[in-house]
Amino acid sequence: MPNEVTIAIPSVRSLLIEMWAGPQPLATGTAFVAIAPAGPVLLTNRHNVTGRRQDNGQPLSPTGGVPDTIRVVHNRAGKLGEWLTRDEPLYASGTPLWREHPDLGAKADFVALPLTALGEVELHSYDVANPGPPIRCGPAQTVSVVGFPFGIQAGGSLAVWATGFIASEPDINFGGLPVFLVDCRSRPGQSGSAVIAYGNGGVFAMEDGSSAVMAGEVIRLLGIYSGRINEQSDLGIVWKVTALNELVATIG
Questions:
Q1: Are the CB atoms for 40 and 201 separated by under 8 Å?
Q2: What is the value of pTM for the model shown?
């Protein structure tokens, strides 16, 4: 990619994933990387790796198949703008390799899969323990869901940005879970997307009521997107970054 091209960091942090059952592709989705005490993990939705609906356990694929492998489209090491695929098994002797939230378990629609196939791969990770500057993020404020709707890649394997608004109080748990809502026209394939507040420098309102001038990209990870509340609504579910951190911190 030419040197003069500027790429926003979140565009390469979100990764296209494909779920496979043996030689059969089932679906696409989105994931991103965090660094656990034991090493890098892939964060995505639980329903992506199980291939089943969260509410009733029925297969998501019309084929009835569920995945045994996840194919990750990674950034190539030292060559920004080039990508390569690596396959990660989802089971070892029938036992799932992904890790679930230590308290919520299968109730939480997100998991962490330890990454093992990283030859020639460069990781652009999010720090879920320190997700970004404490800029104010409240109802009606703009957020971006950065992922791959319908598996669409925005040039090479750069992510697509879908922009919406925070639709519930982010500090209050929705439905008794560490979740808040966004109003965003998201589509299949964006499950597992990073949800961020983003700006290109300027004056930002901070959580403590002050204002701060910041230069360059300002990125705050808010959580992971896991789909709409129902098919008739544009309201989507975001699992909070604090819950992601609770999971990642246990993988030692």
A1: no
A2: 0.95
Separation CA 96–CA 100 (nearest Å): 10
Numbered ranges of CATH 2.40.10 in the chain: 9-122, 142-241
pLDDT tens string 97-108: 999 999 999 999
pLDDT tens digit sequence for 65-116? 999 999 999 999 999 999 999 999 999 999 999 999 999 999 999 999 999 9
Q: Can you tell me the distance from the alpha carbon of 124 to that of 77, in angstroms, rounded to the nearest whole number?
A: 10
Topology (CATH level 3) of domain 142-241: Thrombin, subunit H (2.40.10)
- The β-bridge partners of 135 are 206
CA torsion angle 29 66 239 140 (round to 10): 50
Question: Does the structural domain 9-122 have CATH classification 2.40.10?
Answer: yes
Ramachandran sector of residue 35 (left: φ over 0; alpha: ψ -120 to 50; beta: rest) = beta
Please give the mean pLDDT across all residues of the chain: 94
Q: In the numeric block, which tokens belong to residue 163?
A: 């922009």
- Among 121, 44, 118, 51, smallest CA distance to 82 is for 121
* pLDDT, tens only, 149-201: 999 998 899 999 999 999 999 999 999 999 999 999 877 789 999 999 999 98
Q: Is 159 exposed, middle or buried (0-12, 13-18, 19+ CB in 10 A)?
A: buried
Q: Exposure of 27 by Cβ count < 10 A (0-12 exposed, 13-18 middle, 19+ buried)?
A: buried
In whole angstroms, give the CA distance from residue 228 to residue 250. 28
* SS3 label, residue 85: strand
Phi, psi of 160 (to 5 degrees): -100, 135
In which residue are the tokens 């940005």 written?
161
